[in-house]
Design the sequence.
DNA sequence: CTGCTTGCAAAGTGTTTGCAGGCCC
DNA sequence: GGGCCTGCAAACACTTTGCAAGCAG
């Protein structure tokens, strides 16, 4: 399950003139089953596939893979950025539909929002100020259903 | 220009059982003319009104004023949170319409987006998953018109 | 072999916390 | 005066950078 799509991703890596290393392979493999991991979580789990991978290396691998477009990241308010594979990186494409993230400022939970819901907004922005919105790049904030009884803060 | 609305804000502060101090007054005054300041920028400018105000104190003042609802903040990707007064805090209410922020991942520029554009999305989220969106709380990311010729990164 | 990648250490942001003293009410 | 606020120092979480050694191609 991992190997097939991982190899596809590595092939893309190579085709961009980048070297295939244990660290980069580990990062991709770790992201396969888990979509919302922080750099530290990735580093921790990568230990299994590539003992000794340093957090620094994970950050650098994430940057490289991100430039190529194999992975993307989402900024979440007040805590670590989360990373995920893009559809491109997954040969099997058994991926769920692309989605944006909304985060509850109370409990921190992340929810997925279908891109479709954000399309009208993106269109408006493009038309009005020429701004090309990337709906995946930052989490939208608010309060989830479960937390709406409690008071608000951050 | 500052004094009138500042006093109104301070009255609200007092009415919440909080003490009115030089540091808190300075934070409010500094935010009056400038809407998008980071904690550090606020601390730097507050020096004028209240010499010696420490960054730490600014953070604590911002937290307190935020809990009361006099100010709000917006998380921007990869850099410092920006703070602004809320409509409540401004007696004169000569405020521009409330707006959300979109940020260019290339040049870092911030743009305002009328809340109106985000209303349909907020409604959808509320209906579908009971999530109450706070459109002001995090900046949306994308690429501005001027930067769209260049390549992308972050 | 050439030089892209890595590991380590250290620095860099942005923000928070512990504690003693100071000021608002 | 009592206790909330402040200043200072230090710690904190996350991320980046410099440099010598290592491995991919």
Sequence:
């Amino acid at each position: 399950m991992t190997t097939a799509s991982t190899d596809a991703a590595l092939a893309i890596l190579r085709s961009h003139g980048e070297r295939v290393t244990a660290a980069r392979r580990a990062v991709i493999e770790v992201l396969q089953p888990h979509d919302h991991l922080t750099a530290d979580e990735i580093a921790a789990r990568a230990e299994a596939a590539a003992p000794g991978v340093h957090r620094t290396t994970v950050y650098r691998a994430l940057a490289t893979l991100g430039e190529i477009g194999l992975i993307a990241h989402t900024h979440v308010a007040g805590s670590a950025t989360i990373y995920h594979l893009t559809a491109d990186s997954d040969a099997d494409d058994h991926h769920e539909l692309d989605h944006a993230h909304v985060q509850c400022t109370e409990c921190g939970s992340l929810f997925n929002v279908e891109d479709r819901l954000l399309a009208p907004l993106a269109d408006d922005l493009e038309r009005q100020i020429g701004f090309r919105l990337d709906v995946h790049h930052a989490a939208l904030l608010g309060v989830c259903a479960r937390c709406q009884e409690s008071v608000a803060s951050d």
